[in-house]
Amino acid sequence: MPAETLVREFNHTLLWPVTLRPLRREAGRHATYWDTLKKNPGPWESVEDLLLIEDQSCLAGYQEFVYFLPYVQRFLYGVGDEGRGAQSSLHVFQRRDIKEVRIQVERDGGTLVLAVKRARLYFFYDVDIAIATLEVHGRDIALQDAVEIMDRFGRPYAPAWEDSGRGAHCLYRVEFWGDAKSEDGEPQLLSAADYGDREKYLELVKASRQTTLSLHWEFFLSPMVPGYLPGGTLKYHQIENKRIPIMTYLAFDNPLELTRGDMIRIGSAAKWGPSDTLPYAKGFLANFEADHCYDRYWDPETDDMQTRFMFVGVAFSGVSSHQEAAARLTQFRHQFFQIALIANFHKAALLSLSDRFSRAVERLNVRDFESVKAFKKHVRETLEVFLRFNHRYWFHELSNQVQASDFFQRLSHQMGSDQLYTEVREEAHDINEYLDTDRARKQADNAMRLTVVSSCGMVGTIVTGFLGMNLYSHDALPTIEKLLIFVAVFVPTVALAIYTVIISRRLANFMEALSSEGLTWGEKFATFRQIWYSNRRERARRRREDADRGEGLATSE
Q1: Three-class SS of residue 123?
Q2: What is the 8-class DSSP label of residue 468?
Q3: Rg for the chain (alpha carbons), in Å?
């Protein structure tokens, strides 16, 4: 394909999921992330009605609304018997201060100016994640630059550095510009990427063991604060690393002229290369069209079918002719955007739940009572969240439109959401089984202890209560003497009961040995002696193990 081929319409959207840390106590017991942000919104402003966010006439919102099934409508727009007054599962913020993004792909390349069409932040009820979205748009961009932007713009940090000091796989320059005029009449620079500041990334990773974000992405999410920085009420950290999920629409004068290499690079958001080459091995790409392309409206043999959609990992892209750009882009920015938003939300929520289960197990110390107690509390809360997610958010069908259903299934498959859901559900099942088993074990242990105490107390009860007989008659004694006799009997009895509970496990072992016909009387007597001596032996054994462990650590050091 000729090098000067232009992308007539280039619409690129990032959907960036992040995990939110639990709010601190000072935020309030029933505080929510969105209410906390409203108190200190910074550049963000709350969106009261998502249906009218872009068009007060409701035309665009109506087309989105009727595209989805009723339960998806309730999820997106809060539909209910009271209509607009019903609560939505989404809480949306937007910012208007970033007007354009200026990009320089290579050091000796020109500056591309992309208009910012949408900058939003989505919170989800009962799930500790947020999704930040940034949509940029440009016209008449060289295909090479468009593909490089798809590949490099959604990089939250530099994964490595080239010999020149430039961040590998990153754009040479990225700047956010606002419309506030400076003294010389120029727009205001709000923030710029710092991919080349290698020392910053290395020092923060060494100090916090967390991936560090580029400065312009920190600015985009402010006043939210990344987890590796001090301060801030709303703190977040990344769910996935290296690349932010994207969706991109490209319109060409004649998309049928795109080579197979061009298509694969667009669909995969891969590094640019000559059009007559492939980005990966030929055998690896043998089934690319069958596995990743949606060709319902694509036929190279006709001029009427020039629209192709591609789904590769975290990249969702669409290609069409410039003549169809108006209709295709509108649908891509609205209905298809909502499909991608839900698909990315599903994966982010499942990853967050899996991480919560993993952290709970990592912190569990079965020998520490407080650790076990905290583990059970944390796991039960996570199981409740998973149950509500399963019944409130886990959709298999979004729309009765065939294309919408196909898109959602392909996105979920490429993101691995179905497999991830199965894994999280198995984790929840395993942990729930552990809790049930532990609960049953404790109940059996308590029943055993009560049985032993009852058996031991039964002897005294029968002896003193045989035929209602009273060994001593105290009817004629004064009240104070009766009270003293009661205390004198009550206190030792309580102490004996407590002591019996303490050694109940050893008593149970003795009773089991006593009832066994396979043990000799000598072995039974040895078990009887262990009622009092086993505890000493156990403490001595533990002290020896601790001493051996300390010597082993000293030797290894």
Answers
A1: strand
A2: G
A3: 34
Q: Which residues contact 262 (CB under 8 A, 6 or more apart)?
A: 1, 143, 275
| Between residues 528 and 113, the one the model is more confident about | 113
| CA 524/CA 536 separation, integer angstroms | 19
pTM higher than 0.90, yes or no? no
Least confident of 67-76, 142-151, 181-190, 528-537: 528-537
pLDDT in tens, 478-489: 888 778 877 787
What are the start-end ranges of the E strands in 378-490?
Answer: none
Backbone angles phi, psi at 322, to 5 degrees: -65, -30
Backbone angles phi, psi at 451, to 5 degrees: -65, -45
Name the nearest CA neighbour of 314 among 423, 413, 211: 413
Cβ(9)–Cβ(250) below 8 Å:
yes
Alpha-carbon distance 340 to 131, whole Å? 11
Q: What is the mean pLDDT of residues 127-132?
A: 94
Provide the residue type at 158 as one letter.
Answer: A
Terminal-to-terminal C-alpha distance of the chain:
64
Say how far apart CA 49 and CA 224 lie, in whole Å. Answer: 23
In sequence order, which residues have a C-beta less than 8 Å from that of residue 237 and are 6 or more positions away? 18, 19, 21, 210, 226, 227, 228
Give the tens place of pLDDT for each residue, 270-286: 999 999 999 999 999 99
d(CA 117, CA 100): 9
pLDDT above 70 coverage of the chain, percent? 82
State how far the Cα of 338 lies from the Cα of 323, in Å rounded to an integer.
Answer: 24
For residue 47, give the DSSP letter: E
Range from 3-12, 64-73, 80-89 carrying the lowest mean pLDDT: 80-89
Across the chain, mean pLDDT equals: 84
400 CB contacts (<8 Å, ≥6 apart)? 69
